[in-house]
Amino acid sequence: MGLAILLxxxxxxxxxxDFFTPxxxxxxxxxxxxxxxxxxxxxxxxxxxxxxxxxxxxxxxxSTGALTETLGSPFAAGTGPVAxxxxxxxxFLYVSHQGGGVAAYTINRNDGTLTLVNTALYNTxxxxxxxxxxxxxxxxxxxxxGSSDISSFTIxxSTGALTxxxxxxxxxxxxxxxxEDPTGHFVYVPLGxxxxxxxxxxxxxxxxxxxxxxxxxxAASYDVALDSNSRFxxxxxxxxxxxxxxxxxxxxxxxxxxTTAVPAGTKPVAVAVAGGNKYLFVANQGSNNVSAYAINSxxxxxxxxGSPFAAGxxxxxxxxxxxxxxxxxxxxxxxTVTL
Length: 339
Hints:
Number of strands: 31
Number of helices: 0
Structural class: mainly beta
Radius of gyration: 18 Å
Helix content: under 10%
């Protein structure tokens, strides 16, 4: 069952661990790669079910958005893979595991297949639940739900290997996820009922706490999405609401846009910004659908006509094509990806 979905293609969309990363070389083709040009690839973390403990890799048809599983997929990933992240150059894929640790892979730019960088996992804290890759491809941050901290690593730009920084960072609560700031200055950590932790990325890659933002008027913070300019941020609370914030450019802190939460579906758990910062999408695991909103110039939200849109059984993660032509949703209970 896929707990996370990540797409690699021609552009970068930095949002909640769901990315499109540049992949150069090769041509389309390859069983669904489209009609030529830069290939796009999709990856899902398979937590349980028949493919438990693996990562599935797909080629994306650039015309229809259809997914075709690549040769050799799924790839072994260890116990309980839960989150995915890729470097901005589309060279490396990182997967965190609920049992502890991070796996690193190189991405074949022609067919999207994966090769382990190191047979042993890189050590993290207890029960990692989210992973964020710095948009400059310098650092990897892993949110550890079980030990309430964040593990930080530097990336070897040649091999993709990870080197841990000396100290972990206290998260201020039990983190659910980790989200990188598209400008490369901040990391956001949803803390459930504890709100959202805001951290500054220091020059050596270590993190410094800026603030813990209370979730109200939402009930909690389970995921965060920022627009590509880091002007606005949005959280979902697993209780039926979305909250919007303006981002302080100097320190990354979050300031409520309105004191009223925006209604979503039942148990919203994942959120993404797309379409040149024009739209927001929310996966509602309790109502098996996706809510869509237009983002106004002041950051407020307006429901898109026809929203919400049907998904599979228990959608838990989503990723959006940069052109906003396609939205992909990973569905936990039926082990599918909805297009």
